[in-house]
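Continuing the batch. This is chain 6 of the set; chains 1 through 5 are on the previous pages. Same settings as before, nothing changed between runs. Recording input and output for traceability.
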Amino acid sequence: MVQSNFLKKDFATLGRISNADIINNRKIINGEDDGLMQVAPLKHPFADKIFNTMLKNTWVPTEVPMGKDVETWANPQGLNPTERKVYKRSLAFVSNLDGLQTHNLVSNIVRHITSPEVAMTIIRQAYEEALHVRSYATMVEALHLDPEEIYGLYRKDHELYKKNKRVLESVSKIGDPTFKTGTFESDQLFLEACTANIIIEGIYFYSAFLNFYVLKRNNKMPGSGEMIQFINRDEDVHLQLFINIVNTIKKEQPELWTEPFKERIIRNFREAVECEWEWGVSCMGDGFLGLNPHNLREYLQFVGDMRLQAIGLPKVWSSQNPFLWIDEITQGSMIEVNFFEGTVREYSVGALSWD
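Output for chain 6:
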């Protein structure tokens, strides 16, 4: 954990430091940090804006109605075998992923942050990731699914095992308890870990989210689809947080953003899109309800390009979005956010009433 500068200076030295000095010397990492979490005035106002958005977006999973899902799941004709397989494998992965992300934020990322407003917002994100874990448990419980079949699927399904392993590898580069920022090499590793968070929030969830939305669009498992809408809204805000973190570190420490480093990040995005596509195909086989391997690949490439551009890197694929109806689901009265760019437009606390 970053040691507070409060403990590194004696009383006389502290007396010569002004509040303005502390604020002006703040950075995302390696900045002035007295450990007292002073968040007014702000050096990084984007974090405060996102934090307030998160507060306005507060929701609880138990308020999402699951009655129609329970009826559909219990009906042998409610879903065909492919749809049931897709549902369970999608639920297994997103529940695994939010658990991994909760641990990553609190154990790997926030301990190196020296901007209190950014640290506070990451802590709020960790709460929301834990809320998502509870949301998936609500779905498991409502449908009377076997927890071993969902949470333990990665121990029996090799494709899910490989995907979870890849996610863990992408965030574990700074997981060593002895790791600390402050050198060129370690700061690049931390910046790469932040881009890995963009991949987690902005690519690895997306084929599973799409599966739930395809079912919902066909009037199947609507409560689950609505639960995912709430989670998706949160993840879009988390995505914007880490896009801002990456772009701010680039400005504060431009020496890190070298050509070889940019090539490494682009390669990570390429591999993530391919990994997500392979997993998606392993779920659906030849396809279901209009979703197939071809349009899934095109969709993930489109999403990958959006993420690269958001941090100042060029498109790789130049693919088009084959699912223009996505925004109809994600931009209803409950969610006012662009699905791909995560640009917040309007929010209200507890917008949990449903037709």
